[in-house]
Amino acid sequence: MRSSSYRAVRGALAGSPRRTARAVLTLAVAAGFAAAAPAAAQATDAHSSTTAAVTQAATTADDAATGMAAKPYMGWSSWSMQSSSYPGLNPEGSYSYLTEANVLKQADALATTLKNYGYDYVNIDAGWWMDNTWTSEYDEYGRQTPDPVRFPHGMKSVADHIHSKGLKAGIYLPVGLEKGAYNDGRSPIRNAPGCTTADIVYPDLRTTNGWDSAYKLNFDNPCAQKYIDSQAQMLADWGYDFLKLDGVGPGSFKSGDNYDNVPDVAAWHQAIADTGRPIHLEISWSLDIDHAADWMKYSNGWRIDTDVECYCNTLVTWENSVNDRWNDAPAWSGKAGPGGWNDLDAIDVGNGKMDGLTDAERQSYMTLWAINKSPLFTGDDLTQLDSYGLSLLTNRDVIAVDQNDSPVARPVTPLGDQQVWGTENSDGSYTVALFNLGDTPASVTAHWASFGFTGAASVRDLWSHQDLGTHKNEITATLPAHGSRLFTVKPGGAPLAATSYEAESADNTLTGNASVATCDACSGDRKVGNLYLDSKLQFNDVTVKKAGIYTVNVRYVSGDPRSVTVYSNSGNGTSLKFPSTGDWSTPATVSVRLALKAGTNTITFDSGWDYSPDIDRIDVPKSA
Known about the structure:
Immunoglobulin-like; alpha+beta
């Protein structure tokens, strides 16, 4: 059974924006972006998302028992080269790179170059069931079947070859019943007597997934689960260890009932368990964070953002869309752990010119992925890695940051051109990353006070493998445009002595809409919110003994990145963008540098005419 529906959609997509271009292959994307999500509700509204500790604990017992996704996975994916117009990659037309021969060539290269560093998945992305005219092919049960030209020996043979190299095999499917598989509702469902494709979808044939390329499955009818069971068993029989389920909503730039694919992901989770074969389930793309608890319960990884590929004559570019992740990753930082991880997409840092990045950008790209504990899978041509790219992909110190048991890093400074990120490790050391996202060189400083300690600390540069000796109170580096440094910092001094000031204290001054609200996870179970439209929170009677510049840690809550102007005493203040904490009930901390005078001071958070984060408390060091 064959379907040519993709060809019509592909024609309709000519000239469509970059981020919809993936659909041309990945199963027919609707042109253009979905409308931007509505503005967040007032800052004091409580969102329904479950805290990370609770939701990660809900990761299913079978994953814990098998060790599935105990650490972020590592490997290679075909998509980046499939989707690029780089000369020579797709000589038979768009996306023609995806062939059995090319997959096996990359598997062989992975085994010889990167396997010893932990890279062990070889993932086949979209198109394995389509020919070069984008005609899709299905078996008699409505399941995707390999194109005989692309994969002449079938998918089991490919998996067998991958396994023979000591590697794991990955494959791809879209969510829903593809339109071409419907076959007027006449196709039977395997091992489900009486069930046909007419039974597994809604009578009105409502569409779903990020490209509306499939009919939405109706799980009120048990036949729908049987269809997913048959797909999962097919993949297990072929010997696959990994499934990327794509176009999942809420997400993929779609929302509403038709695009709620949580039941699909749950069905896949159950179907995979029933096969008896451990299969890592990765879902994609730009998943809705309000459903983080569902993604964590039913899958092993979730794409938090759009495609990293640029759909141009390189694999990626800095602007399309590597640099988006610095803004988007913080919201998800508390949503990952053993059993399931935040997926930032491919790390295309190994091929130099083909990657489309400077050396500084390549290092920053890898650094951000590592500190976020994203899966480390590259889309590069592993037979053509340059020496610098190979050094990035095989740096064991950096890989260890991605794979160790420390929490996902977060920004410890507000978002901007210069940023500091970090996390505390189980041995009491800190992973600290400096980033210059600006277009010109700049100095970036990490202050130990941002991490809650002071005095001397030993510093090791993880990219250069050099011990940098002892640094007192801070470390500064001058970074090139889009450059970075990555350190392990071991405190040798004392915990920072600080005085805490609660936002809800009766000693403070609230003006405009600012008001006290309940916050179970906040210090004192309260916070100050409704900082919008010329509202202010002024901390009064902030007392220090000596005048100086103080690193003030601000504990706040913000369901999306929001700006607030912060100043001390009668200063003019600076508008600072605080990264999202993921929802309106989870606090996080960033530090700001403020000049304080000896004696009593005020510290003010001013919304201006914008919407600002809620404030829980501030921690002011006892010394500058």
